[in-house]
Amino acid sequence: MIRRRTLLTTALAATAAIGLAACTDDGSSSDASDAGGASDGGGDALSGVTVSEDLGAEPTVEFTAPLEISEAKAQVVVPGDGATIADGDTVIWRDLYVDASSGEVLQSWWQGAPAGGVQVTVDTIGQAAFDVLTTTTVGSRFVMAGWQQDSSGQARSLLQVADVDRVVSPLRAEGTAGSPSGTYPEVSLDGNGVPSIAGPGEGEPPAKTVRELLIQGTGDTTRAGDYLTMQYAGWKWSDGSAFDSSWERNAPFSFVQGQGMVIQGWDENLLDLKVGSQVMLVIPAAEAYGDDAEAHELGGETLIFVVDVLDAAHTAD
Hints:
This protein is mostly beta strands and about 325 residues long. Helices cover about 5% and strands about 30% of the residues. It is built from four helices and 17 strands. The longest helix has 7 residues, at about 125-135.
């Protein structure tokens, strides 16, 4: 419910592995079930691709363009020495995308693009990427050949090279108790950290978004351009009814801060927070989904969110 747009307005959806796009260049269906290993020829697009192994520098990708990609492929370039990625892990990486038709670098973390990541499930990234990532360790560099949609909805043949930085953990806020004003509904947490509120809002809702600190974390401070990962739950001010929850989906939510990917009340009020913090956001309709109830099911509603800030991956300094 939080996303205002389904794709970035930049060239690519930087938040996802390209292995998730199970379509060919002409838009037809592709099984994409064979994870690539070492060069095996026989139509393996990665057999003709060389990726640099210096983890201290931006990857270089060499191949003869145009590169034909007939099925999704993935392989590890440099193994890391961290823990093995598991089914359901949310991973954070630094990556770049290369246009397979031209060899052009379309976006790169090393050149100022946002960091990225994904929750590692078959449904999220497809079988080919899943098979490789669940045998990959933190600290590894991998390459994928596949497809992704650009901001116009056009599927593009791409190579993605990514350095896996970390697995997001813990998956709930941790820190010291904040000092909420008491003006807004009381928040309770169950044993797993899942929040609930005591009831609807009382009186007139705020005209501008209000942020209350419930838990003060101790991690890095969030800033514009971060690839932000969090858990959240949302309720209507009017009646206290729940309308969305990442907790219920068992899937943390990620977006790039400050790029209009989410409602205004989120984009402007999750800055300057320590990772590990939990906040309540009370967001009026004007900074959420607008005042028109016919334009959106949450139109005209003031919304209450409880957000656990789990990770903030910065752009390159």
